[in-house]
């Protein structure tokens, strides 16, 4: 779900250590609290951005690592890439939007 940007949502999660912040993580634990959530899934996963990171940050609730999704020219292109990789969808998000709208 695309959401109104929320700069405070992940501040509450920063203290719980839900995700691993090692050398492979694109952000630090401190930066997690600075992220702005721009979307979420029905499963509670978050899509966020950080001003010092180029790209989209995918924060799954079912896995302990945060992944960096490279920047996209258009948000719909990003969703068309992220959703099939994460959920195994065989239809693009633009096709789903067509059915919903």
3D structure, described in words:
Helix content is 25%, strand content 21%. The protein is of the alpha+beta class and 101 residues long. The protein has one domain. The longest helix is centred in the last third of the chain and has 13 residues. The radius of gyration is 14 Å and the shape is globular. The relative contact order is 0.15. The C terminus is likely disordered.
Task: Work out the radius of gyration.
Answer: 14 Å
- The assigned structural class equals alpha+beta
Largest beta-sheet characterization: 5 strands, antiparallel
Low-confidence stretches: 96-101
CA-based shape: globular
Give the total of domains.
1
Number of strands: 5
Provide a count of the helices. Answer: 3
Short description:
This protein has 101 residues and is an alpha+beta fold.
List its salient traits:
101 residues; 5-stranded antiparallel beta sheet; 3 helices; 25% helix; disordered C terminus
List the helices and strands and how they pair.
Elements: E1 2-6, H1 29-32, E2 36-40, E3 46-49, E4 56-59, E5 67-69, H2 75-87, H3 93-100
């Amino acid at each position: 779900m695309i959401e109104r940007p929320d700069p405070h949502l992940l501040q509450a999660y920063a203290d719980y250590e839900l995700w691993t912040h090692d050398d492979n993580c694109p952000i630090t634990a401190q930066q997690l609290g600075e992220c702005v959530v721009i979307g979420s899934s029905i499963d509670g996963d978050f899509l966020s951005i950080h001003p010092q990171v180029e790209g989209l940050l995918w924060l799954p609730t079912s896995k302990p690592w945060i992944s960096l999704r490279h920047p996209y020219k258009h948000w719909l292109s990003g969703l068309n890439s992220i959703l099939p990789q994460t959920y195994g969808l065989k239809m693009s998000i633009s096709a789903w939007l067509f059915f919903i709208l």
